[in-house]
Amino acid sequence: MRIGPTQLLLIVGIGFFLMYVMGPKNLPKMGKMFGQTMGEIRKGMVEFTEEMNAVGDAGEVQSGQAVVEQASVVTAEPTIEELEALLEAKRAETEAAAQEPVIDPDRKVARIIYEDEV
Questions:
Q1: Assessment of whether the complete model's pTM goes beyond 0.70
Q2: Same domain, yes or no: 84 and 69
Q3: Which residues pair with 111 in a beta bridge?
Q4: Is the pLDDT score of 59 beyond 80?
Q5: Which of residues 90 and 2 earns the better pLDDT score?
Q6: How many domains is the chain built from?
Q7: Of 15, 12, 9, 11, which Cα lies nearest the Cα of 27?
Q8: Distance from C-alpha of 6 to C-alpha of 12, rounded to nearest angstrom
């Protein structure tokens, strides 16, 4: 990894800013704390990587291709034919329901209500 002039200037600028804000006496303590924090982060990353590798070796992690295929099956949109079949089924269901007798609560008699009456 190479450091370019912009990154170097940024690092130097941050160093001068910290020296100005923290003072030259506290700067070594800050550097030590920063180093310890970075070490803890690296340890955590190594542990996480080892855990993921162990899980992958045990066969519990699916391959990326399988995950993509599952996602595409779940989120796949219906085709036009499927939508037309669903619409036709709903139309037939509605027409059948319209032909069923309806009880008129005032007359207490069953009668058929057709579309032209509605």
A1: no
A2: no
A3: 102
A4: no
A5: 90
A6: 2
A7: 15
A8: 10
**Cα 71 to chain centroid, rounded:** 11
CA 106/CA 56 separation, integer angstroms = 71
Domain match, 71 and 95 both:
no
Residues belonging to the chain: 118
| Residue 98 pLDDT exceeds 80 | no
Q: Which domain holds residue 108?
A: 80-118
Domain identity same for 15 and 1: yes
Pair 68, 91 in one domain: no
Domain co-membership, 50 together with 101? no
Give just the sign of the alpha carbon dihedral 21, 27, 33, 35.
positive
Between the CA of residue 88 and those of 2, 95, 116, what are the distances in Å? 65, 11, 21
